[in-house]
Amino acid sequence: MADKKQDERKNTKKQGDISKAGVKPDADASKDEQVGFHKGSLSTLAKERQELARILQIVEQLMQMHIAALKDLGVDLEKEAKEMIQEKEPPKKPEKPIEDML
What we know:
This protein is mainly α. The chain is 71% helix and 0% strand.
């Protein structure tokens, strides 16, 4: 029973050992392998960022199309935005302090 608990502690310690980059270091991997791993990760993340930027551009184009369509229909979006800001009530102060709620 005691051996099982010691094994669990060792496994927990290994799982918590994470480098600054947030990636578990591999003691058996050579420096070149680690460099390759991190370069590959950066390459993948750069491609993901490019794809996200492309998606944002598409969303922005669609929003601009809808804004143009609403303007053609005579909707004044600036006026409606100002009205929404004015109608918005200031946030209510809680009746009890947050310390009492916890």
